[in-house]
Amino acid sequence: MNNSEIVELTTEGLTAKLVEEKAALNKLKFAHAVSAIENPNILKAARKNIARISTEISKRKNAAKSETASEA
Length: 72
Description:
Largest sheet: none
Structural class: mainly alpha
Radius of gyration: 16 Å
Distance between the termini: 37 Å
Shape: elongated
Number of helices: 3
Order of helices and strands: HHH
Strand content: under 5%
Mean pLDDT: 94
Number of strands: 0
Helix content: over 70%
Low-confidence stretches: none
């Protein structure tokens, strides 16, 4: 998932995607612990996707806070 795709999603969509990605990462970790997965770089990519989504969510929260502070 690219940054441009993440920016296009709504905040609700981002939170849903975050939950989905975290669940997928847990499944990958479990599969890797039981028997080595074919490409362990998938774990790294999943963690990076989670970080990108979390960053975008926090960026939007901070933007909303700064807008309300500037209005007051």
